[in-house]
Automatic annotation (TrEMBL):
Native species: Rehmannia glutinosa
Signal peptide boundaries: none
Self-association and partners: Homodimer.
Role summary: Catalyzes the oxidation of 3-carboxy-2-hydroxy-4-methylpentanoate (3-isopropylmalate) to 3-carboxy-4-methyl-2-oxopentanoate. The product decarboxylates to 4-methyl-2 oxopentanoate.
InterPro entries hit by this protein: IsoCit/isopropylmalate_DH_CS (IPR019818), IsoPropMal-DH-like_dom (IPR024084), Isopropylmalate_DH (IPR004429)
Cofactors named for this entry: Mg(2+); Mn(2+)
Name of the protein in question: 3-isopropylmalate dehydrogenase
Keyword field: Amino-acid biosynthesis, Branched-chain amino acid biosynthesis, Leucine biosynthesis, Magnesium, Metal-binding, NAD, Oxidoreductase
Catalytic activity: (2R,3S)-3-isopropylmalate + NAD(+) = 4-methyl-2-oxopentanoate + CO2 + NADH
Family matches, as SUPFAM superfamilies: Isocitrate/Isopropylmalate dehydrogenase-like
Cofactor: binding comment: Binds 1 Mg(2+) or Mn(2+) ion per subunit.
Isopropylmalate dehydrogenase-like domain boundaries: 44-390
Record has NAD as a keyword: yes
Length: 402
C-alpha cells in the first residue's frame, strides 16, 4: 500500500465503549476464539450491499471484519440497508431517507456496488448511480482516496510489461462531491438552430477545495510528491491557483502540475513516476480506472471517501458486474481491502486494518486467485472460497503469534 496512506486532517480516535459479548453471527473460525481479546470497543457499521456482485463481496468483507474484530477486541454492529437498484425495487428511490440516516448515524459505511441492466434505462433521478452520488453528497465525503498498488504476487496480471508495472504504488486523490458531476446549470435544451443539446457545468467554488488540504496532508507524511492534474479550463485554473497556495504551507511537498491528457499517457508509459495524483471528480474517475489496470484487476482496488467530519464511505472501485452476479465468481478482495481502509481511516483501528491486509496478501501468497487475477498453475477459486482463505489467513496469523 502506498506508504503515504496516512491522514491527519481529522482525528481518528478510537471510541472506547463498554465491554460487550461477542456477536452471535461471528464467523466459525476457531483458533482465535480462545485468544480473542475482551471486546472493549464497539462500532456501528452501515453495510450497503447494493446490486450485482455487491451482496457477495460485502458478505466476505463482513466476515473478515467480524473475525478481525474478535481478535482485536472490537465489536461491530452491522446495519444492512438497501441502496441502488435494490432500493429502487424495494422503495422506488435509489437512496431511501432511512438508508442515508442510518449511514450518517453510523461510525463508517461500507458499500458493495450498485447498478445493473434492469435499471439502465430509468430516468436519471431513478438510476442506481444517482443514489450513489446522493450518498456521497449526503455524507459530504469530498476526498476520495484510491490507492493503486502493484502487488508482487500479481505483477503478471498487469496489462503492462512487468518492468513497467513492478513497484507501482500510487494514490489517486479524487475530489468527490463537486465539479461536473454536480455543477449547475445542467440539462437538455435546444440551441439557436433548434437542435437538441445536452449540457453540464464544470464548476468549483474556492471553498469546495478542501480536497487540496487532504491531498497535501496525505502526501506530506512521507515527503512525497503530488501531481496535480488539470486541464486548461477556468475551474482548473482557479483550482491550480488555490492548490499552489496551499502547497506552500507544506514545504516538504513537491508539487507539480500536469495536464490530464499527458497524465493519462504517462500513467501507461511510466506509472512509477507518480506518487499522489490530486485531481477533480471527473478526471479522478477516469484516471483511477486506468490506474487500476496497471495493478492487474479492478477487482483488487479499494477506496476511502472522507469528509471533514462524520462517517467515511468505503467501497471497492469496481462496479456491480451484473454479468457474473450470483455466480460466485467475483473477486471480494477490493471490498476486503476497503474494509481495511475503513478500519484505518474511518475508525483509527490501524492494527486491525493491518491484519486484514496481511491476510489478503497471505491468501495470494498461498496461490489463491479468483478468475480476474488467475494465471496458470495457481488455484482458481470463487468469491466464497477466496473469502474463506482470507479468514484462514487471519486465523493462522493469530495462531502463529500466540
Ligand atoms: C466510481 C463510479 C461512479 C462515479 C458512478 C457509478 C457514478 O464510476 O465510483 O468511480 O462515476 O463516481
Ligand atoms: Mg468510476
Amino acid at each position: 500500500m502506498a506508504a503515504s496512506l496516512q491522514l491527519n486532517f481529522k482525528p481518528l480516535k478510537p471510541r472506547l465503549l463498554h465491554a460487550k459479548p461477542a456477536s452471535k453471527s461471528a464467523p466459525k473460525f476457531s483458533s482465535i476464539r480462545c485468544s480473542a481479546a475482551t471486546l472493549s470497543k464497539s462500532y456501528t457499521l452501515t453495510l450497503l450491499p447494493g446490486d450485482g456482485i455487491g451482496p457477495e463481496v460485502i458478505s466476505v468483507a463482513k466476515n473478515a471484519l467480524q473475525l478481525v474484530g474478535s481478535v482485536e477486541g472490537i465489536e461491530f454492529k452491522f446495519k444492512e440497508m438497501p441502496m441502488g437498484g435494490a432500493a429502487l425495487d424495494l422503495t422506488g428511490v435509489p437512496l431511501p431517507e432511512e438508508t442515508l440516516s442510518a449511514a450518517k448515524e453510523s461510525d463508517a459505511v461500507l458499500l458493495g456496488a450498485i447498478g445493473g441492466y434492469k435499471w439502465d434505462n430509468n430516468e436519471k433521478h431513478l438510476k442506481p448511480e444517482t443514489g450513489l452520488l446522493q450518498l456521497r453528497a449526503g455524507l459530504q465525503v469530498f476526498a476520495n482516496l484510491r490507492p493503486a498498488t502493484v502487488l508482487p504476487q500479481l505483477v503478471d496480471a498487469s496489462t503492462l510489461k512487468k518492468e513497467v508495472a513492478e513497484g507501482v504504488d500510487l494514490m489517486v486523490v479524487r475530489e468527490l462531491t463537486g465539479g461536473i458531476y454536480f455543477g449547475k446549470p445542467r440539462g437538455f435544451g435546444k440551441n439557436e438552430n433548434g437542435e437538441e443539446t445536452g449540457f453540464n457545468t464544470e464548476v468549483y467554488a474556492a471553498n469546495e477545495l478542501g480536497i487540496d488540504h487532504v491531498g497535501c496532508r496525505v502526501i506530506v507524511v512521507e515527503n512525497n510528491n503530488i501531481q496535480f492534474v488539470v486541464e486548461n479550463g477556468n475551474a482548473s485554473m482557479l483550482w491550480r491557483k488555490i492548490v499552489t497556495n496551499i502547497a506552500s504551507e507544506f514545504p516538504d511537498v513537491e508539487l507539480s502540475h500536469m495536464y490530464v491528457d499527458n497524465a493519462a499517457m504517462q500513467l501507461v508509459r511510466n506509472p512509477k513516476q507518480f506518487d499522489t495524483i490530486v485531481t477533480n471528480n471527473i478526471f479522478g474517475d477516469i484516471l483511477s480506472d486506468e490506474a487500476s489496470m496497471i495493478t492487474g484487476s479492478i477487482g483488487m482496488l479499494p477506496s476511502a471517501s472522507l469528509g471533514a467530519s462524520g462517517p467515511g464511505l468505503f467501497e471497492p472501485i469496481h462496479g456491480s458486474a451484473p454479468d457474473i452476479a450470483g455466480q460466485d465468481k467475483a473477486n471480494p478482495l477490493a471490498t476486503v481491502l476497503s474494509a481495511a481502509m475503513l478500519l484505518k481511516y474511518g475508525l483509527g483501528e490501524e492494527k486491525a486494518a493491518q491484519r486484514i491486509e496481511a491476510a489478503v496478501f497471505d491468501a495470494l501468497d498461498r496461490g489463491y486467485r479468483t478468475g480476474d487475477i488467475y494465471s496458470a498453475g495457481l488455484k482458481l477459486v470463487g468469491c466464497k472460497e477466496m473469502g474463506e482463505e482470507v479468514l484462514k489467513s487471519i486465523d493462522s496469523k493469530v495462531a502463529a503469534a500466540v
